[in-house]
Amino acid sequence: MFFQKSFFKAFLIILLCDSILYFNIKESEKRGHDEIKHEKLDLSENKNDLDEIFQEPLIFIGGYVSSGTSLMRSILDVHPDVKCGPEIKIPNMFAQVEKLRENEIIKNATESAGLDDTILKRALGLYSYYIFLNNVDNAKRLCSKEPFNLNYIEFFKSVFPKSKFILIVRDGREAAFSVIKRWYGEKYEFENFLKFLSEWESWYEISYPQCVRTGRDYCKIVRYENLVRNPRETIKEIAHFLDLEWTDKFLKHYEFLDKDIKVSKNEPSLYGLKNEINTKSLGNWIGNIKNYDEKKIREKIKMLEFFGYL
């Protein structure tokens, strides 16, 4: 019984990826997405159209929560060629599929049916692409901003080989403090602080090696501190990396909310997006963590030293 239910669930996920893509890309074409080079899509007639999708130069932004990913995407959203849009939590679905695939019975059954890892990856890639496409208005380059993107750099690179990645890194102490403030109010106990710092470290222990293996031509590490202290210089480097022409709008993203920048009603960083780029978010954790233990931080959170924050 377990096998039947689990296999059926896995089958439905794969079928969903395929059917949603087929029927809804057709619908998106009717709504005008032909302006962004998708006019040739006809999945029932030409498999080459799928290959064209896989060759698109997508942009992925990732980083730990409260590390500046929302700021980064709002900056890029003002460029006429790029649209990221708000978070849509696609990587959360990937985790569920990965969990299913860990079951040997399901894995053997799907592979026996010819559904190997390559096919599943491409199906998930197409599913993601369709969601990206419908999360924004017409754009020459689609962009995805999700904190969890940082854990799937190599996955997306294998499916979309021309894609590029921006990995946002912020001092883990700043990020942990911001998360606690956002979700827990004024409860700045050290143990809670250390818990989120450990999570911050675990995320970058996964993502940093992926970024390095992907290569500097495709994955760029952006320090949040550099972005807010030297925005013009840092954004110029990012624009060059992404092959985007400079626009002064990059420095005035706050003027384009609900215009060029699509904002979700549940946008967690909306307050920050409404303001010009500034350094007010730096150093807020200092002196505000009850029973702060620097020695324990140095012993347990090695990535702080690795990134030069200690």
Automatic annotation (TrEMBL):
MF-aspect GO terms: protein-tyrosine sulfotransferase activity
One GO CC term on file: Golgi apparatus
Gene3D superfamilies: P-loop containing nucleotide triphosphate hydrolases
InterPro entries: P-loop_NTPase, TPST-like
Highest rank taxon of the organism: Eukaryota
Function: Catalyzes the O-sulfation of tyrosine residues within acidic motifs of polypeptides, using 3'-phosphoadenylyl sulfate (PAPS) as cosubstrate.
Protein name listed in UniProt: Protein-tyrosine sulfotransferase
Organism: Brachionus calyciflorus
